[in-house]
Amino acid sequence: MSEPVLKRINIRISGLGGQGAVTAAHLLAMAANKMGKFSISNPFFGAEKRMAPAESYVRVGPEKIFDRGELVFPDVIMVFHPQVITMQKSYTAPFYSGIKEGGLIIINTNVDLLTKEDHEYLEGLNVSVFECDATHLALEIGGTELSTNMAMIGACAGITKVVDLPALDKALQDRFGKKYIASGGTATLDEAIKKKYAKKEQLLEANNNTMKKSYEIAAAWAETASYAAALYEPA
Amino acid sequence: MNIKVAPSSGKIIMSETVEFGVKGPKDQIVTDPNHMFFEAERIPNFLTGSEVIKEAIKRCNLDMSVAYPITPQSEAAALIGELYAEGYVREYFRGENEFGVMGECAGAAFGGARVFTTTAGPGTLRAMENFPMWAGSRLPIQVVVTCRGVNSPLSIQPDTLEMYYLLETGMMIWHAETAQDLYDWILAGFIVAEQPDVHVPLALCCDGFFVTHTKDTVSLQSDKMCLPPYDPYRAPVPCMDMENPPIRMMRDPFVMKSNYISYMTHASWQQEVHAAVERSRKHTLVIMGGSLLETENLDREILIVASGTAVSQSREAIRLLNEEGIEIGLIKIKTIRPFPSQELLEATANAKTIFVPEFNIKGWLGREVRSLLPNNERVIAGPHVAGGMTMPSEVIVEEIKKSLGIKGAHMASRG
């Protein structure tokens, strides 16, 4: 039997500056690349500021991807922070604007942040909503809320199967296991998270565990949800 | 209108005095660009555009780079600093501002150095006086321009309006679509710019964020090889020695006298600079696969003509339209200066409608195309986005469907 093939999947990540939304997109795209899929990721943000809206986009598919820039019509939306919804810290209003039929929304929260109208609209489009307590998982397993993005990536992979855990592990090694230069803000955050651990290996392990736990929880949820993973059986 | 030229002897012409196989920076092997560009094995890497600039410069045998931070090129400028720390770049420092940076680049190039820098948006405009000065002084400096918004209110997002300002500076202007273009053309750029019959600066433009901050697959040669060094003794004007100014212009600028001969001298020199840009074609053709255009399906009635990221968005739009049975051709313009006029005339000869999508408000490419083509009512300059907006492929699809009288979906979405 041949392996199921991934169809084109477009992921929009809405978060706040400093949460690692850009890093999350890069990791997902790198993991997809390591699995031999075509992928592209890019960020969108204003002048760098903590807690200001920041978005990033990941496109993964079975053929070469040219499309870049803001994702206006995503299949999956990840909300990294409740303020994206409650304080409208999003480049779209509402935050789920443009979501495709049969899509998926993953929100980092432990309470329902959506209004009755939101739920009705999304149900009308057969969009599944997964509430993922990512910050809690990050604190509990990663030991720092800076691992929230890892929990969100894990949840995304657990439900959509866009990438698998070994590929995410490899991407993580690539990103944090060696010298990496980004903007001043990102470099500062990298230093901050590295200081939380005595050794780089511990950082990688804690992040990996957070990702894995979130993956498992989300995969179990996906069994009960109507969302169809972004895979198809080849003809 | 240019005359179509053939690639210069089919291969890259190099200085006869530079040696291949000797050691360059960090024990890299100085390699014939003909081998490096066309034969050397390449390995795919998954990198951001900024990292790709670093990878290209690492292999450029670079003498000097001057940095000044401005989004979205700051990461690239910092990464070149890493190369300096590692020993791949001989001299590197931070300028006071973009005007200073470009002046410092000029100083180094006057002295016979291979020089590279990066800038963006407001930085490009701040430095503007230097660009025609570089060109007039025949300095083969390469600047990567990572385009971003230039006007107030502030935007750090991609917008190609600054390229409009650069068009007639006397520099070569190339517009990279992807990180792969950017990588290949940084290496090739020095080789073309340093040809004795060219010897003008290159503004290698790409769209900020869409290229610089996007992670994409790029194939790289081994970093154990590097380009041959710049040979300043091949320059059409001598490199400068402040003690003994080699051309009279330096010490007693007769062109600053008010008489007909001085005007004439200046005018003919301007013509020569622009002619030098034109002469770059035959060298550029060699490294750009034999054409300054990339074309697909020119037999279609509807064509898209674009440069930069607008090409990528058009490729996706064409894919979407194909699914609905609407077939569209594509022309990617790689070099804006020199402009591939004759090639474009031929490529569009049978088109009934030509769309020119652009990431700027005024549509400078649309104007170029309109002013060139006969029956230019065929040219629809658009769609346009500006100020950092994305151009979703769906917007191009809708524009084309509208022209065909097909009703499309409602596009209003982003708030």
Q: Which chain pair has the greatest contact?
A: A-B, 30 and 34 residues
Gyration radius of chain A, rounded: 17 Å
Percent of residues in helices of chain B comes to 25-40%
Largest sheet of chain A: 6 strands, mixed
Query: For the residues shown, what is the average pLDDT of chain B?
Result: 92
Number of helices of chain B: 15
What fraction of residues of chain B sit in β-strands?
A: 15-25%
User: How are the strands ordered across the major sheet of chain A?
Assistant: 3-4-2-5-6-7
Computed over alpha carbons, the radius of gyration of chain B is 21 Å
Shape of chain A: globular
Number of domains of chain A: 1
For CATH, the homologous superfamily of chain A is named as Pyruvate-ferredoxin oxidoreductase, PFOR, domain III
Q: Uncertain segments of chain B of ≥5 residues (pLDDT<50)?
A: none
C-alpha end-to-end distance of chain A: 11 Å
| N/C terminus separation of chain B | 44 Å
Strand content of chain A: 15-25%
How many strands, which pairing sense, and closed or not: the largest β-sheet of chain B?
A: 7 strands, mixed
Specify the structural class of chain B: alpha/beta
Chain-wise SSE layout:
The complex is a heterodimer of chains A (235) and B (415).
Chain A lengths: L4 E2 L2 E8 L4 H14 L3 E8 L7 E9 L14 E4 L3 H4 L17 E5 L7 H9 L3 E5 L1 H9 L5 H13 L4 H12 L7 H12 L4 H25 L6 E2 L3
Parallel strand pairs in A: 2-5, 5-6, 6-7
Antiparallel strand pairs in A: 1-8, 2-4, 3-4
Helix pairs in contact in A: 1-5, 1-6, 4-5, 4-8, 5-8, 6-8
Chain B lengths: L28 E2 L2 H6 L3 E7 H10 L5 E4 L6 H13 L4 E4 L3 H13 L4 E5 L1 H6 L3 H7 L5 E6 L13 H6 L5 E4 L3 H15 L8 E6 L7 E7 L3 E2 L21 H4 L8 H20 L1 H7 L5 E4 L5 E5 L2 H15 L4 E6 L1 E3 L3 H7 L5 E3 L8 H9 L6 E2 L12 H11 L12
Parallel strand pairs in B: 1-10, 3-4, 3-5, 5-6, 6-8, 7-8, 12-13, 12-15, 15-16
Antiparallel strand pairs in B: 2-9, 7-14, 11-13
Helix pairs in contact in B: 2-3, 2-8, 12-15
